[in-house]
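Try it yourself: sequence plus FE2/S2 (inorganic) cluster, in.
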Amino acid sequence: MANRERFALHVNGQIHVVEAEPTRRLLDVLRADLGLTSVREGCGIGVCGACTVLMGGRPVSSCLLLVSQVHHQEIVTVEGLGGNGVLHPVQQAFIEHFAFQCAYCTPGFILSTVAMLEKEPDLDEQVLGEYLSGNLCRCGSYLHILKAVRTVARGRQHGFS
Amino acid sequence: MAIGRSVPVRDAEARVRGAVAYLADLRLPGMLTAKIVRSPFPHARIRHLDPRPALRIPGVVAILTAEDFNRPGAPRLFYGVDRKDQPVVARDRVRYVGEPVAAIAAETPEAAEEAAQAIEVEYEELPAVFDPLTAAKPEAPRVHEDCPGNVFLHTRLRHGDLEAGFAAADLIVEETYTTPPACHAALEPHGVIAQWADGRLTVWSATQAPFVVQETLAELFGLPREAVRVIVPPLGGGYGGKGYVRLEPLTAVLAWKVGGRPVRLILERSEEFVTLTRHAAWIRIRTGVRRDGTLTARQVEVYWGAGAYADITPRLLRSAGLVRVVGPYRIPAVHVDAYGVYTNLPPAGPFRGTMSFEGAWAYESHMDTIAHALGMDPLELRRRNLLRPGDRFCTGEVIEEAFFWECLEAAARHVGWDQPYEKGEGMRRRGRGLAVMMKSTLPRSRSECRLVLRADGVLELHTGTVEMGQGAHTALAQIAAAETEIPLERVQVIGPDTAQVPYDATTSASRATSMMGAAIREAAARLKEEMRRRAAPLLEVDPEELILQGAGVTLRGRPEVWIAWEEVLRRHGLEALEAHGVFETQGGLDPETGQGIASPHWHQGAGACEVEVDIETGKVRILRYCAAAYAGRVINPALATLQNEGNMVFGLGQALMEQIFFDQGQPLNANMSDYQIPSLRDLPEVLESVLLESPEGSIHGLGEMTLPPVAPAIANAIFDAVGVRIRDLPITPEKIWRALHGE
Ligand code: FES
Ligand code: FES
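Structure, out:
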């Protein structure tokens, strides 16, 4: 294949060197090359949030990023949350509050929530809207997602998580 | 007790870890990528098609065109669950923009893409027709040569003396309502993998109907059913869009041409918009009513735009397309005429709330027009006419479980219907609206299951029910646990895989929990009977003296004698004990009169809301929405509530936002930025879900029933607020603004 280059990606705490055309989408690299299938394609144009990953702690759409743009960047997918088989509190809350149906959107919502909780000490409706309206749920699980998110946020204020 | 408890879904942890393997996550060795070459014209003759330039591209393995079907031993070109009018790939003629004319299998997506560009096709455009009403005119261009006037089916419902009914009325109201094509927009696109080995076909498909796919493919290739195996991974949403047969024939024939290597087709988002849509419907409704609000007659005429191929529409028209457009009312005379019409648009099919959505849009908006004309409270008008238990519906069947009033009343109460409120005077006006609906489920369909009790104490439930997010596998496992008294943790769900599980018609029409649940009950009863028979000799008693209790067998009057089921198996040297369960619904309607049994039970839902309309911009804000459904016996309250909320959110999109715009057959908004679905920001300020339970009632699916009322409830509230009646969905600010300004 023409003009392949090597890129170093820091994904979930590990360094992966991938060989790819610079225009290859991060989404495809993560899914096809690294087998991280929690990252999913929904719309392909940055609207649905199913392909959300964290880059430097910020939620971004991996369908809009090229591999050449993420060289040496810190990437986190849902596979990298929690640790030692333990679920992250946000994942736990999503289970407890039935915050999904088909769950195709779930990893994206979880990552957006994780980023929001890290960055925003005060959660008001506006912040919630800003962080979470970039993720779509066609099954319409929104009310339960909000319940889960608010519960973790409250827990955090009380010093958990 | 396993029933009535909100247990988390079976694979909840995998779901939050992103570890559920959807179709796109399956990897098979040697798997090729498929790509479809599609028609750019709504109606055209194919003058010339040459795949050869594409074959020279490195990495291209095979190209399928209609030519291939002429080869000896080739599969049939045409398929369809009712009329076999749809070609796997177009021969001579294309009938909608996006119709497949060729398909490519290649080593990489890039090679497939390049090949798709390289295939040379020459078209000669033909006159086309797009809306169902124009298409049904005798002089309209023909979508299919053999179907002049484009009406491929006309079904009728005839109940009572219509003329006498209208003569008895003080007032007759006639209106016309329309709904446009819409897109299911599941976040997971359609996907299929097909592979041939030794004359046998295996298909992995994101389908809601594995057994229909199996039957269709077997017929297409002239194979016995057993030679086709269909495996279904969990779905990332279905909503009807993955119902029946979609891309499986094309992928399977392409794989047949490849021979041996697996071929995978996953649609791009833009292709979703030309794969299956909601029907474009044109509904004329005419009702006679007496001054006191008593309905005397109703006549409904519906043109269902089916798109270029009949698909499932004929089946729907024989029942759903008639009974779902009348409304849950006691009306002495009802006539319905339903027309299935070909147009030069993509095929239309099942869509969450199929045909009830369109029906309720018309009859529930219409009810408010009538109430307004009579100067009567809309709730009161409905109260006087709603079906009550023991009433006869226009099909002649008696409705036993009838809770329409209870649903409607509950929803109305939640928005404070009987309390006075400020309508406002300035730029923002408030209004309230409500709506109720009745939906049939499928008559004449069958669900089977198998229960396998293993010697290690695990109970396997083999079922063809598809898990698409509704939590069906969890609810079914709860039913199996409750019926056998085996702890829920020990119930394993296997399937859907046609090679492993017994027949099930389809996972749609909210039938899974109710029908599969009934099959499980029967299998459990058989299993217990068999257990009693096997345990009797071990305890040296008659089977009649045994009582089944707590996944074991005990002796009548002597509870200290108890032996576990797995112990019974072990002592008989059995590895497993199996029992089969079948549940079938009867009925069906006479296509000439619409009389008979339309549904084994009726889905019932209502909604009420309060809205604010900005008269400067036409923008609508939903301040409060309450959806109430008759839920019968609830298996898992949390999952039931999720379904109900899903209905509302889905319904909001259908009511206010969603429409595929076609310009001369070309889809203009085939992406998720121009075709918007509800996000968190579109939710009402208050959204309430009410489930009316009845522990003695039957089990009802809940995935649809509160969806159809959403659009008319909102439209009625808008009318209440600003006196403007919107009759064409979706209700956009522009339409409201125009109506307000007399345009
Ligand atoms: S796939 Fe990236 S945002 Fe939808
Ligand atoms: S749970 Fe299905 S899309 Fe969100």
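One thing you can check immediately is this: Chain A has a mean pLDDT of 93.
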